[in-house]
């Protein structure tokens, strides 16, 4: 079990909305931590606001030796547990963490590529008044934040939906 003595990256599951608190308490243990943050647009009825949120809600990465730090990490404020298989912590490949880190911009945020919707794409709606319904893309609206779709569950009624509420279904 030499890997248990070696230093690896691990995914840490944290309490809901406690990513920053858990990350700082684990960092206070003298360990390297990485909480990837993404830039998101939130809109209300009046304006669109730019905010940041964790790229992986409820998780962050920490680099440590399980032999010396596993118990301390799991007892840190905000932490639920280190991701494991049974009782064995599962290391995250260094290359995976480096790839995520390479996408961090100067402002500390990761830019998520805007989804491209093509006419005919089958989509599911996961938020808003039509949540749970399926449809087909008719076109993107000029502001590129909304997509015109034909709702299959409402006899092909046309609706304009926020693009962030849509997921393209696999063909």
Most strands sheet = 5 strands, antiparallel
Number of distinct helices = 4
The secondary-structure element order is HEHEEEEHEEEEHEEEEEE
Strand fraction: 35-45%
Mean pLDDT: 87
Beta strands, count: 15
Structural class: alpha+beta
The separation of the N and C termini measures 44 Å
| Spatial shape | elongated
Rg result = 20 Å
The percent range for helix content is: 10-25%
Enumerate the spans where pLDDT stays under 50 for 5 or more consecutive residues: none
Description of the molecule:
This protein is an alpha+beta fold. The chain has helices at 2-5, 19-27, 66-75, 94-102; strands at residues 8-14, 32-34, 37-43, 48-54, 59-64, 79-82, 84-85, 88-89, 91-92, 109-110, 122-125, 134-140, 146-151, 157-162, 166-168. Strands 1, 2, 5, 6 and 9 form a five-stranded antiparallel beta sheet that branches. It has a five-stranded antiparallel beta sheet with strand order 14-13-12-11-15, with no helix packed on it. The termini are far apart.
Summarize this structure as a short list of keywords or feature phrases:
171 residues, alpha+beta, five-stranded antiparallel β-sheet, 19% helix, 40% strand
Quick synopsis:
The chain is of the alpha+beta class. It has four helices and 15 strands.
What is the strand and helix layout of this fold?
Layout: H1 2-5, E1 8-14, H2 19-27, E2 32-34, E3 37-43, E4 48-54, E5 59-64, H3 66-75, E6 79-82, E7 84-85, E8 88-89, E9 91-92, H4 94-102, E10 109-110, E11 122-125, E12 134-140, E13 146-151, E14 157-162, E15 166-168
């Amino acid at each position: 079990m030499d890997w248990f003595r070696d230093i690896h990256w691990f995914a840490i599951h944290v309490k809901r909305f406690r990513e920053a608190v858990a990350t700082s308490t684990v960092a206070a243990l003298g360990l390297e931590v990485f909480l990837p943050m993404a830039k998101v647009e939130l809109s209300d009825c009046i304006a669109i606001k730019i905010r940041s949120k964790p790229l992986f809600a409820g998780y962050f990465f920490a680099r440590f030796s399980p032999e010396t730090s596993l118990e301390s990490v799991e007892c840190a404020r905000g932490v639920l547990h280190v991701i494991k298989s049974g009782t064995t912590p599962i290391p995250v490949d260094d290359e995976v963490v480096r790839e995520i880190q390479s996408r961090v911009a100067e402002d500390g945020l990761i830019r998520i590529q805007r989804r491209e919707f093509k006419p005919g794409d089958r989509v599911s709606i996961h938020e808003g008044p039509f949540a749970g319904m399926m449809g087909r893309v008719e076109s993107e609206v000029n502001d590129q934040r909304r997509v015109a779709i034909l709702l299959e569950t409402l006899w092909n009624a046309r609706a304009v939906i926020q693009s962030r509420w849509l997921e393209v279904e696999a063909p």
